[in-house]
Write a sequence for this structure.
């Protein structure tokens, strides 16, 4: 899956610390921690015609990530939402938009690693792009990456950080294998996620996904689990051995960037033993997609509410 350039994004206005500038003129200081150390946290949000999906949950996760990294001077929620609103307004955006919201540790007064040389508070970057869900709804093909997701004692994946090198190494593997994305295991050999999405399997009517030991606490993941619980669909979070995935009736990925998409094959082995016809989601994912669409109807914050204060 290779994203292509969307002409609608040619003249985007982006927001850097409250300044609205053309994408070609935007600049982040070389002293910013995002540039120096990849020391930033981010959220990907999706704008539907009804508004931004699960907005408060995304801001909660952003604040949690920033707190785990002990950031000082994080802009407060109303300031963040106001800047998101200004950015969407400047671009006249209403729906089919993906927002990448970044908070970095901010400017350093000299190059270096030590957070004590950050004395100016956090930087806030809002990038909103015209971007419908990125995955082809006819399904995706995964390969298993050699690179693994680190354990919490190495780098806690609940910190949703802009340092995405493990994901990029895995994605390079997927590209080399001509696959859409790479499945990533944790260091013990259990399912973690892909380079960019969470992974669910369906076996004998039970929907299962990994624990969050080696993946972020995904908002779409939580929505799917919640949908299952409210609709009496059996579901589990557990350590899933790699080999089990090949025997799943259905396999699918979740994320804000691409919503819910089924996996056609893993390491070139078709998933579903013929239950899932080529290019069509299986019956469970069809049901979950319907329920997810209903969730979008009720789970969005209208854009005007962002500018309430
Ligand atoms: C590594 C990783 N996995 C999974 C996801 C999907 O999470 P969400 O459903 O919150 O978009 C993301 C999204 O940002 C991610 O960065």
């Amino acid at each position: 899956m290779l994203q292509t350039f969307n002409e609608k994004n040619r003249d985007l206005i982006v927001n850097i610390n409250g300044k609205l500038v053309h994408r070609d003129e935007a600049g982040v200081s070389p002293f910013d921690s995002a540039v120096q150390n990849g020391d930033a946290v981010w959220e990907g949000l999706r704008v539907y015609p009804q508004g931004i999906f699960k907005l408060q949950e995304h801001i909660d996760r952003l604040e949690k990530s920033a707190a785990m990294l002990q950031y000082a001077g994080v802009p407060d929620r109303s300031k963040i939402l106001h800047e998101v609103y200004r950015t969407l307004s400047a671009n006249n955006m209403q729906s089919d938009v993906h927002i990448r919201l970044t908070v970095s540790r901010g400017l350093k007064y000299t190059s270096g690693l030590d957070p004590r040389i950050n004395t100016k508070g956090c930087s806030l970057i809002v990038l909103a792009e015209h971007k419908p869900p990125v995955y082809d709804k006819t399904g995706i093909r995964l390969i298993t990456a050699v690179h693994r997701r680190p354990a919490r004692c190495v780098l806690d994946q609940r910190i949703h950080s802009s340092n995405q090198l493990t994901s990029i190494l895995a994605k390079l593997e997927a590209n080399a294998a001509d696959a859409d994305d790479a499945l990533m295991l944790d260091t013990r050999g259990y399912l973690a996620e892909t380079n960019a999405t969470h992974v669910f399997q369906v076996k004998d009517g039970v929907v299962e996904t990994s624990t969050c030991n080696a993946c972020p606490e995904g908002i779409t993941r939580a929505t799917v689990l919640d949908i299952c619980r409210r609709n009496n669909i059996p579901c589990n979070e557990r350590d899933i051995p790699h080999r089990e995935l090949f025997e799943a009736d259905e396999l699918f990925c979740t994320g804000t960037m691409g919503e819910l998409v089924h996996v056609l094959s893993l390491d070139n082995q078709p998933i579903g033993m013929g239950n899932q016809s080529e290019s069509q989601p299986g019956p469970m994912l069809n049901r979950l997609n319907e329920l997810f669409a209903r969730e979008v109807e009720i789970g969005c914050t209208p854009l005007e509410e962002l500018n309430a204060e």
The CA atoms of residues 97 and 198 lie 21 Å apart. The domain at 140-296 is CATH 3.20.10.10 (D-amino Acid Aminotransferase; Chain A, domain 2).
